[in-house]
Specification:
- Two copies of one chain form a homodimer.
- Chain A has about 475 residues and is α/β, with parallel strands linked by helices.
- The first copy, chain A, folds into three domains: about 70 residues, Arc Repressor Mutant, subunit A (Orthogonal Bundle); about 110 residues, Alpha-Beta Complex (Aspartate Aminotransferase, domain 1), CATH 3.90.1150; about 240 residues, Type I PLP-dependent aspartate aminotransferase-like (Major domain) (Aspartate Aminotransferase, domain 2, 3-Layer(aba) Sandwich), CATH 3.40.640.10.
- Chain A contains 15 helices and 15 strands.
- In chain A, helix 8 links the parallel strand 5 and strand 6.
- In chain A, helix 13 runs parallel beside helix 15.
- The longest helix of chain A has 27 residues.
- Chain A is elongated and about 90 Å long.
- Chains A and B meet through helix 2, helix 4, helix 5, helix 6 and helix 7 of A and helix 2, helix 4, helix 5, helix 6 and helix 7 of B.
């Protein structure tokens, strides 16, 4: 037998541990499979007879026979009647990187760094996520759900949540929302993916996106649905509707309540012009209603959707109000688009997780959601005031705009300033700043502007951070 | 003033409730907005001056002014300096079906019916979902997560869960799985959507699907990625690899451990032929590993992926092991495909919900997942035995196949039987049966076969149901 196994005696490869509690057959099988997968037993190699192998391992012959049969049925071994059992010829390349325990192929190139202040936008405060409320809501959902709720659900989303969300949006966002217009989705990214898919089926593939704005995200989503995206300029009153009209797009994605990232509120006359454009061009407006809950000086501007429910798809999410990690949001669509959106959602993932949906419905119904929003409005309001005060002191001639809502604002540097140089110098000092150029289609750094997010940046960090970079901002 | 308001005096439209606790301004604003949205106040109508309106409502003038200003900024009202405030001309069609409270546009055409037995496949037992374990796991996840876990996560999925899943699949499914090959997704539907998207980017758009099999689902997913699907016949040894080769597809979706819906196990020689095909054609095998945990006579057949980790994408899910409503699954992909899959997942929804992922990791790590599977194996095993016994008694000459694993089996009716007539007659008697024809590309009812699912059908229902239709099956 030693002759047959010149390179690798299977007895030497197998280490049975009689104290492990794991059945010997299972140990033998796992170790043999491993030896074949990793190439320690190679194609064509002949295995000992079950009798010999059993004797040398000190196990019952049936154990080896069962193990051979299992690995034969999985394709690792071959056995013709009357001849020996051999390792199958899998002709698989030695897959170094795929072997269990192999080194990590692509280690994260950016290990997290500890900043004095990081003014990233688009992330809410992660330290005040209402964990207890959410746990309560999930427990309620899991405890009270009927058995049928554990099946595949309605691809539009849980009926309770759609009712609660429609009512919430009517009350808080002035929307004209009926539960049958609501499709629950996994947040803004999925919302536009599904909307673009539904619109592409009607030949509406040319999508306008605000410039500056989320140009990369919208472009990728449009292209995934077989379309294209065109940037349309935003000025102090919001999107330029004449330029939109000239773009020949029949879809536009925008942020009327608090433009991302300039912070501009879409002016009333622009609202009218936009809806008139949509009527004239038979177009669809996709409203990203991302942070309107957080308005400080006065109450939030109502959703555009309420003005033209047949022309507007409004996308909302709890990413800013609760936490991005929950991946829950909704689309409120014109009735004529709901079926196509639902089909897109069904094809994408057969619907959102039910318990998470029921939990969100409970959270809103119970008043805990509103209470959390009130608490956060106070928190963000204090940060906003701290940012404004710190900048006023550090750089009194640098105007700060877009502060009416949400948790970011724009600082307008002097015209001669070099946006990129300021960011680089601040990073050297441990403060992370973000330039407007990233959000412009041209990537131009002029006019030089910084987008200050304060959703996940404490008052103390804001003060310390601004103090450290004060001279850079003047 | 009565003259100006001939049709609709706004005072008559507004009902302020001074005991409601809701601020009067908010009440006034909501009701005015509603009146405009529903057309009770129409375009161009002139509103009373804030002074007159305030007096007639008995509120402060500032309340009306604030309300006018808010509705102006939302676009519902227009006001030129020095002239009256009017209702904006929105030119929106009266949207009957979209108005809040309007009748439901599409009521569900199939209200749930109470069956003596429903032999639907593909759904696990919904009455034994481990609610307490899941609540425990979610609470652990929410309680112990660091703040950063509430941010947008890694689009590949939570690092802990990917490690736990890779280790589980190595141990239980004989896979060659490294955490860096795992992309967490929302179940099989999303798994194929992402995989097809990643493969389409490499020009691999022609997808073979088992026939009988999930032809509709796979076809829709292939088309959504710009491709096509071709059915390839399944015989008693699994998919016909020669026919697959002739199909010129470079992607195949299959269920090697327990073919859906025939229940056939892919024979060892077919496993080898399939992998040889993939090597020769530079093709990718998508393995739907959907119910292999539930094998009764012997241990589960190991995953095909372990034999050829560079050629196979294995899709798994908790839809059968825990509940479909959780919408959690994974793709284990060759290293060279992981980046494209991750990009597809990021574009689709920016990653799965984090807490659900962490909860699943805890459930597996704690041994609760294995314990649940053991319990369910016993439950399904008893149902399987009950089905076999009931059919043996009711229709001794009708063979039942595909019983080795999972929770469905196939009854082969006599050749002269009319599959559709049997199903219709059984429905008359309150028993819901399912024909193989649904899963065939030709929709042919020959040979006549019934697919009996027993995942969510109790032993009692199985016995009662078969007894009621016994004479139809002979």
């Amino acid at each position: 037998m030693a002759v047959e196994w010149s390179n690798s005696s299977p007895e030497l490869l197998i280490q049975l541990d009689r104290d492990s509690g794991e059945p010997l057959r299972s140990q033998l099988q796992t170790q043999l499979r491993d030896a074949i997968q990793t190439g320690r037993l190679s194609a064509g190699e002949r295995l000992p007879s079950s009798r010999d192998f059993a004797r040398s391992l000190g196990v019952a012959r049936g154990t080896v026979q069962d193990c051979y049969e299992q690995l034969r049925s999985e394709g690792y071994l071959v056995a013709q009647t009357g001849s020996a059992t051999r390792v199958a010829d899998l002709r698989v390349e030695p897959a170094e990187a795929t072997a269990p325990g192999a080194p990590i192929p692509t280690p994260d190139p950016h290990p997290p760094r500890r900043w004095i202040a990081d003014f990233a936008s688009g992330v809410p405060d992660l330290g005040t996520v209402p964990r207890d409320d959410w746990t309560w809501a999930l427990r309620e959902a899991t405890r009270t759900a009927p058995n049928a709720a554990f099946d595949y659900g309605d691809p539009r989303g849980d009926a309770d949540l759609r009712t609660v969300v429609a009512s919430y949006l009517r009350r808080v966002r002035g929307m004209s929302a009926h539960p049958h217009q609501v499709v629950v989705c996994a947040g803004f990214a999925q919302g536009i993916a599904l909307t673009f898919r539904a619109l592409a089926d009607r030949g509406m593939t040319r999508v306008a996106v605000e410039d500056p704005g989320p140009i990369g995200t919208v472009t990728r989503a449009a292209e995934a649905a077989g379309g294209t995206a065109v940037p349309v300029a935003v000025d102090d009153s919001g999107i330029d509707v004449d330029a939109l009209d000239a773009s020949s797009a029949r879809v536009v994605v925008l942020t009327p309540a608090h433009q991302w990232p300039t912070g501009v509120v879409l002016a009333p006359e622009r609202r009218h012009a936009l809806i008139a454009w949509a009527e004239r061009r038979d177009a669809v407006i996709v409203e990203d209603d991302y942070d309107a809950e957080f308005r400080y000086d006065r109450e939030p501007v109502g959703s555009l959707q309420g003005l033209a429910p047949d022309r507007v798809v409004t996308l909302g999410t709890v990413s800013k109000s609760l936490a991005p990690a929950l991946r829950l949001g909704w689309a409120v669509a014109p009735v004529h688009l709901v079926e196509a959106l639902t089909a897109a959602k069904e094809a994408a993932d057969r619907g959102a997780p039910t318990l998470d949906q029921v939990a969100l419905a409970r959270l809103i119904e119970s008043g805990r959601y509103d209470r959390h929003l009130r608490r956060m409005r106070a928190l963000y309001g204090a940060r906003r005031d701290a940012l404004a005060a710190a900048l006023r002191e550090a750089a009194p001639h640098v105007p700060l705009t877009g502060l009416a809502a949400g948790f970011h604002a724009v600082a307008h540097l002097p015209d001669r300033a070099d946006e990129q140089a300021v960011i680089a110098a601040a990073a050297e000092r441990g403060v992370r700043l973000y330039g407007m150029s990233t959000y412009r289609s041209t990537r131009s750094s002029h006019p030089p502007q910084l987008v200050f997010g304060f959703g996940n940046t404490s008052v103390e960090e804001i003060r310390d951070g601004i103090a450290v970079v004060a001279d850079l901002l003047r």
